[in-house]
Design goal:
six-stranded parallel β-sheet; about 15% strand
Length: about 260
């Protein structure tokens, strides 16, 4: 099994999934953090000097030859790249299935300009990210960020993160703002890579595992239906977009889907 990991969390986050697989089933992480053009863009304004197609080709080139059945997995933006990888493979080398872990489809519906990413939405995602990094749940009331811009909303996230123990007492707001800006630059990088990408239908069945607290809670298919010519199986697991990679109850849903015959 190969899993495409786009960063945000360290690649070691997939160790729990590897441990949950049956004996003899190996898992290799294709970490985009090792691709300088991609990783550096999250630190330099979110503009990557590459494309989805080029990244997919690089990941394919990094894979060892596969003998026998295999599974391809993509978490978050990694699902976009995993889908692009299958489009470049000949029929005889395709995986048995492509498993998408809370990945938003690169379809027109979700190819949005940067300014469509509203601060309240991004701040909510950032709170999930902070909680996953620190092993704490940063709880926000449903309307806590409604109508707030970054300057008004970030103190709300800071207070919630301090209350949850996700940040140390005395964490300064300017320091959190730097972390938030880097986080958003990573999202903008992915958004800008997806915008010009024109995907075709997947050449194999798709399996989508959506987190209960997904980035896009209202869409059960996360936009993948138009690309699922060979079928789309839908599943839900506990946790949010980030904690689904480490929660035992979430891995209990995901691991059998990867190992299914």
């Amino acid at each position: 099994m190969y899993v495409v990991h786009p960063g945000a969390l360290p690649a070691v986050v997939h160790q729990g999934l590897a441990d949950a697989l049956p004996d003899g089933d190996g898992l290799t992480v294709l970490d985009l953090g090792a691709v300088a053009e991609y990783a550096d863009a999250a630190l330099t304004g979110g503009r990557a000097a590459t494309t989805v197609a080029d990244l997919a080709d690089r990941l394919l080139a990094a894979m060892a030859p596969v003998n026998g059945p295999w599974t391809l997995v993509g978490w978050s933006f990694g699902g976009v790249l995993a889908h692009a990888m299958t489009r470049s493979l000949p029929a005889g080398r395709l995986p048995e299935r492509l498993v998408l872990l809370d990945s938003i489809a690169p379809t027109e519906e979700y190819q949005q300009p940067d300014d469509a990413l509203e601060p309240a939405l991004l701040l909510g995602w950032f709170a999930m990210y902070l909680g996953a990094k620190r092993g704490r749940t940063v709880a926000l009331a449903p309307d806590a960020l409604a109508g707030r811009d970054v300057d008004d909303g970030l103190p709300v996230v800071l207070d919630a993160a301090l209350a949850a123990g996700a940040l140390l007492p005395g964490t300064p707001l300017p320091g959190l703002r730097k972390l938030y800006d880097t986080y958003v630059d990573g999202l903008l990088r992915n958004n800008r890579l997806t915008a010009p990408h024109r995907p075709g239908p997947a050449p194999l069945p798709l399996v989508l595992v959506k987190a209960e607290r997904s980035l896009i809670p209202g869409d059960p298919t996360l936009g993948w239906r138009p690309l699922a010519r060979h079928g789309l199986a839908l599943h839900t697991c506990p946790g949010d977009h980030y904690t689904m990679l480490s929660r035992p109850d979430a891995l209990g849903v995901i691991a059998p889907l990867l190992a299914a015959a």
